[in-house]
Structure formats: C-alpha cells, structure tokens
Design brief:
The protein is of the alpha/beta class. The protein is about 35% helix and about 20% strand. It folds into 3 domains: about 50 residues, no CATH class; about 170 residues, Rossmann fold (3-Layer(aba) Sandwich), CATH 3.40.50; about 70 residues, Ubiquitin-like (UB roll) (Roll), CATH 3.10.20. Helix 7 links the parallel strand 6 and strand 7. Helix 1 runs antiparallel to helix 2, helix 2 packs antiparallel against helix 3 and helix 3 crosses helix 5.
Length: about 325
C-alpha cells in the first residue's frame, strides 16, 4: 500500500508575506532579487519549507543568470557591461562618485579611463590590465555606486567579478563612503568577504572578496582619515592607502588584489631542464598536483604517476603524489 505524501505546513511569518508583495510589485531585477533574498532569510527552516525554498532558489538563479549574461545589441556587438575575463582574474573597482577609480585604473594599467573632476563621468565599465610581478590582473572601472542609480547591467558585472576593490576618497568621510557602498552591495545580494574568507559555491548569495582602498593620500589630512578607515575595517578587510595622482601605494594595491583573487602561480619544469619561470600556471588556491597537470593537458589525468616539487615541500625536489596541495610559486616536475 502506497502512503499518500502529506505536505507539512510552511507556517510562514508576516515578514515573508510582506516581502512576497514587494516581489510581485517589483519592476527591476535587483528589486526582485532583494525581495526574494528577504523571503529566504525570514523563512523558517524545516521540511515543510524545503520545496518552497527550492523554488525561490530557482527564481533567483534565473534572475541572476539574466543579469550576468545580458543580451547585447543587434549586429553582434559585445555588450559594454559584459567583459570577458583575462589574466589571473578580474577585480572590479567600485565606490561612490569622484573617489578616483578611473585615476587608479589609468595609473595602474594605462587604459584610457575618463578622469574628470565631476561625478558620474564613468558611464560604462572600462577594463585594463595591471601588472603584478609575473602575472596580469584585469581591473575594471565601473560607474559609481549611488542610491537610485543602480543598474541591473552593473549588478551582473559585479557578480561575475572575482574580487571587488572598494575605492574611497580620503579627502572626505571615507568610513561613511565605505559603509554606504557595502550596504548597497549587500542590498543587491552581494556579500563582501574579508581577509582569508573564500566564496562558498553552494551559497545563494554572491560572495566576493573585498579590498578597501583609501585614495588621494596626497591630500591634507589624508593620513588621519586613513587611520579612521583602517580602524573601522582593518580587523576584517585588507585596507590600503594610495595616491593615484602621485603613484603612491599602487604596488600594495596590486598585491592585495592578487591575494583577493584566491589564485596561486605554479611553474612547470621538464625533467632535466630549468623551470619555466616566465609563464606560470594560474590555478585556484588549494589546487593539487593533479589539477596542475590537467591544466596543462587532459592526457595527464591517466598517465600522471608522481611529481617533484620545489617550494612548499619539506626539501627541494621532494617526490609527491597527485593529491599534494600546491602553494603559490611552487615549481612542479611531472612524471608519467
């Protein structure tokens, strides 16, 4: 005898129904996502809500996909808010108007960013490649984040980026600027991650490593304002001080941007030859010898027997198995 499936009551709180009304009346995708995220947050967790929770996740996934892959204009031209990733990873410059994002992009990459003394000069994203030691990081200057000017296209770009660089103006209240930008990101369902925190692929929010940048270090009183910024956020996020105008602190910024990407560099060494130090493999942190081998060619999946590793091992050239976890700047010699 087959027993009928009895649905458990959801027992949804009033806050859920209020958020559901906002979802039904929302006109933009970010507004719909914000309402869905609130519905998820206030929904009780038990078997009676499992099906509803899955439905909400599916709706959010469809909306996020629409934002992350906007349809371009006719004629096959690339949509300006859809920027293919290059280099070791993509870091988006975000922040309030006139914080100096475009100046930082120009100083680090030489890209023809539009630098102007008035707000909202940047209307579309502008990419550029910044050098960090032996790799390049793709930086993307974005339109300013300000209440009432959030665009779904920009939301999709930020969700696709590997890390966020929050730029503040040290000539003003930098703490309030950072607080306001983080609040806007969170209202969009983008959760900033601090130092050492890594994104959880199963998490329903977009989790992005965040670096806070205090720009315009050349201004009077900038050091005092930076100390306030570091005191407010330094316990969780990397905080760096730069002057795009004078080129101060830019090396520190690229170093923190690289760390935020969550990648490592691995150099290969053919047996009996010198290591190839000019073109490292860029792999996700936590990658194994097997992962490094497969990134070179899929045929290594079957024929890899062991590897010799220089760098993170107890002694140079130590023999390791395919499951050995590599570290940044390791040298690997594969053997089949």
């Amino acid at each position: 005898m087959v027993r009928p499936v009895i649905a458990m009551p959801a027992n949804l709180p009033p806050q859920y129904h209020e958020a559901e009304k906002r979802y039904r009346t929302a006109r933009t995708i970010p507004e719909k996502l914000a309402a869905l995220q609130e519905m998820m947050a206030v929904m009780p967790k038990h078997k009676g809500t499992d099906h509803l929770r899955a439905e909400l996740r599916a709706k959010m996934a469809r909306l996020m996909d629409e934002l992350e892959h906007p349809s371009g204009p006719r004629g096959g031209r690339t949509h300006p808010f859809s920027i293919p990733k290059e280099g070791a990873g993509q870091a988006a410059l975000v922040g309030p108007p006139n914080a100096g994002k475009s100046s930082i992009l120009a100083a680090l990459t030489g890209a023809p960013a539009r630098v102007a003394p008035y707000p909202f000069a940047t209307q579309v994203p502008q990419p550029g490649m910044a050098r960090f030691e032996d790799v390049h990081i793709q930086l993307v200057d974005t339109p300013p984040l300000a209440e009432g000017r959030l665009e779904g296209r920009l939301f999709g770009l930020l969700r696709n980026a590997d890390a966020l660089l929050l730029v503040t103006d040290l000539g003003m209240d930098a703490v309030s600027q950072a607080d306001g930008t983080i609040a806007l990101l969170e209202s969009w369902g983008i959760e900033p991650l601090g130092r050492g925190e890594r994104p959880d692929p199963a998490h329903w929010q977009a989790q992005k490593p965040l670096v806070i940048v205090g720009n315009k270090a050349d201004l009077d009183g900038a050091l005092d304002e930076f100390q306030r910024l570091e005191s407010a956020f330094g316990h969780r996020f990397p905080v760096v001080m730069v002057s795009a105008q004078e080129g101060v602190g830019l090396d520190d910024l690229t170093r923190e941007a690289f760390r935020a990407l969550g990648v490592i560099r691995v150099y290969t060494k053919p047996p009996g030859e010198e290591p190839k130090l000019d073109a490292p493999l860029v792999l996700p942190a936590g990658s194994t010898v097997e992962g490094a081998a497969e990134s070179l060619h899929k045929s290594w999946r079957q024929r890899l027997k062991y590897a010799l590793v220089w760098g993170s091992t107890k002694f140079p050239g130590q023999r390791v198995g395919r499951d050995y976890v590599l570290a940044d700047r390791d040298i690997v010699e594969l053997h089949g």
